[in-house]
Design brief:
Structural class: mainly alpha
Radius of gyration: 28 Å
Strand content: 5-15%
Number of helices: 13
Strand order of the largest sheet: 1-2
Mean pLDDT: 87
């Protein structure tokens, strides 16, 4: 019995260092960046009152941490577990755990993510920047009218054609932008939006626009209608084909979204008086495209404006569940209105 106990103890003494060595290797490996060399930034939100365990799980879920357990051990050893702050932080998977902890201890994010959704107007962007506490109400709007934009030669030359969005409505590319909280300025941000548009649209699709037989401004105006009218990607080229066919035939486009735009009524009911508003944006009353885009379109809507699908349809509507119904004749369209909209 004594011999067996002695042998067990010896094995235990040999095993413990091996376990400790393996644990140390695991610990050091787990402290390394989750994806070394990857500087793709992600927004991480830490709610007030979140425990160290909860913070570790959030960081791991966002892909900036190898091991939640190693993070908890590391913060405990550093005595930093009680000093991690709540807030929204811009981190990346190439950061070491020390850099992550330092960022969370500061309680300040050097950058924040500003996402411009497809279909946003200049007014919407202005309101978003106010909500993010980046600028005062109206500051971005004023900049679209007053800031120096001469370097962006693709912008329309005429002034005042779009009362709400100026020369830039429709030319601001929807995307996620990381901006500095401390050095943010409406003019610098506007330049970033236009520069991104130049790279993503002008440089990549400019040749196709030239071959389309349409002006660039017409393509963007149509893309904005498609952005507002289509619900699914499959609908975009079909709606594009219908609207271009009506445009080329000299018929009214009849897109209520243009009326909503000029009257700043994004969701409330359009009245009979609204439909009679005397504005070139009223595509129920005036034929042709509106004077300018009514929204900043995403890539898919711009491509749909460039690549319309030919069909026999002249009309379309969405029912109350969002399903689209096409029609060849006005009579068929009216029957669809009665059946699907009860009108």
């Amino acid at each position: 019995m004594f011999f067996r106990d002695t042998l067990f103890v010896r094995k235990l003494f040999l095993l413990i260092p091996a376990i400790l060595a393996c644990s140390l290797v695991w610990y050091r490996f787990s402290l390394r960046p989750a994806d070394f060399g990857n500087n793709d930034r992600v927004s991480v939100r830490i709610e007030a009152g979140t425990s160290t365990r909860g913070i570790a799980e959030v960081l791991h879920d966002r892909g900036v941490l190898r091991s939640p357990l190693a993070f908890r051990i590391h913060t405990r050893l550093l005595g930093a577990d009680a000093s991690l702050q709540a807030g929204t932080f811009i981190l990346h998977s190439g950061m070491t755990q020390g850099e992550i902890i330092e960022a969370l201890q500061s309680g300040k994010a050097l950058e924040i993510a500003v996402t411009i959704p497809e279909g946003f107007t200049v007014t919407d962007i202005d309101a978003l920047l106010v909500k993010k506490n980046l600028s005062a109400t109206g500051a971005f709007l004023r900049c679209t009218q007053e800031c120096d934009l001469q370097e962006f030669a693709f912008l329309p030359l005429s002034d005042g054609f779009a009362p709400r969005g100026g020369k830039v409505e429709g030319y601001l590319f929807p995307d996620t932008y990381f901006v500095s909280v401390e050095s943010f300025s409406p003019e610098a941000f506007l330049h970033r939006l236009l520069t991104n548009f130049r790279m993503k649209v002008i440089d990549e699709l400019g040749g196709e626009v030239g071959l389309s037989g349409r002006s660039f401004h017409e393509i963007l105006a149509m893309a904005s209608l498609i952005e507002e009218e289509a619900i699914t990607d499959a609908e975009r080229p079909v709606i594009s084909g219908i609207l271009w066919k009506r445009f080329d035939d000299g018929r009214g486009l009849g897109v209520d979204a243009t009326i909503r735009y000029i009257l700043q009524k994004p969701s409330s009911t359009i009245t009979a008086g609204d439909l009679n508003v005397d504005s070139p944006y009223n595509t129920r009353k005036f034929r042709g495209l509106p004077p300018g885009p009514i929204a900043n379109s995403g890539r898919r809507s711009i491509e749909a404006a460039l690549r319309p699908t030919d069909s026999s349809y002249w009309y379309y509507l969405h029912d109350r569940n969002g399903k689209i119904h096409y029609a060849v004749t006005n009579e068929e369209h009216n029957l669809n209105r009665i059946e699907y909209l009860n009108k």
